[in-house]
Amino acid sequence: MTPPWLGPISDHEIDALATLMRDTIQPLVYYNEPAIRAELIKYTPEKLRARAAGDPHAVLVARDATGLTGFCVSRFDDGTIWLDWFGTASRARGRGTGAALLAALASTLPLRNAHKIWCDSRTDNKESKSALERAGYKRIATLMNHWHRQDYYLWESYP
């Protein structure tokens, strides 16, 4: 059962989510500048609003009394869910928010007529690798010199 503080985004939270995603993505040392720029363009308030309107389970958020503490953005792709991003606000790290978001994403599969989740992570992103492994994701490939000429792992989960 999903905790009450976690679930689909509400329209009034979209601007805060765009800010949280920017604040999470922009300082990442795992991505080069072209990759960061490309990702930030994808997660504007308008694009997040459209994604949530098209699929109510595509944008999940975690909240506390002060606002958003985490996010999980995904999309349906021919029977598979592609996990684009998940992250936790710096003030909320180490509390299981990322794990709860990944579990909530897995619970959406039947509702979205999907059978598995795929995602990628930079090969040197130890935090993402650890979170995905703890959530039961299996690394299925290494993509060398791939998006933005960086190395990635490809992951899958059959929840």
Task: Compute the number of structural domains.
Answer: 1
- Structure annotation, total helices: 5
Q: Unreliable segments (pLDDT under 50, ≥5 consecutive)?
A: none
* Mean of residue pLDDT values: 95
Strand order of the largest sheet: 1-2-3-4-5-7-6
Query: Structural class of the helix and strand makeup?
Result: alpha+beta
N to C succession of SSEs: EHHHEEEHEHEE
Instruction: Please give the alpha-carbon distance between the first and last residues.
Output: 14 Å
Major sheet attributes: 7 strands, mixed
Superfamily (CATH H level) name? Gcn5-related N-acetyltransferase (GNAT)
Approximate shape: globular
Give the second-level CATH assignment, the architecture. 3-Layer(aba) Sandwich
Rounded to the nearest angstrom, the radius of gyration is: 15 Å
CATH topology group: Aminopeptidase
Beta strand count:
7
Give an overview in words.
The protein is of the alpha+beta class and 159 residues long. The protein has one domain: Gcn5-related N-acetyltransferase (GNAT) (Aminopeptidase, 3-Layer(aba) Sandwich), CATH 3.40.630. The protein contains five helices and seven strands. It has helices at residues 14-25, 33-42, 45-54, 97-107, 126-134, and strands spanning 6-8, 59-64, 67-77, 80-88, 116-122, 138-143, 152-157. The chain has a seven-stranded mixed beta sheet, with helices on both faces. A hairpin with an 8-residue loop joins strand 6 (138-143) and strand 7 (152-157). Helix 1 (14-25) packs across helix 3 (45-54).
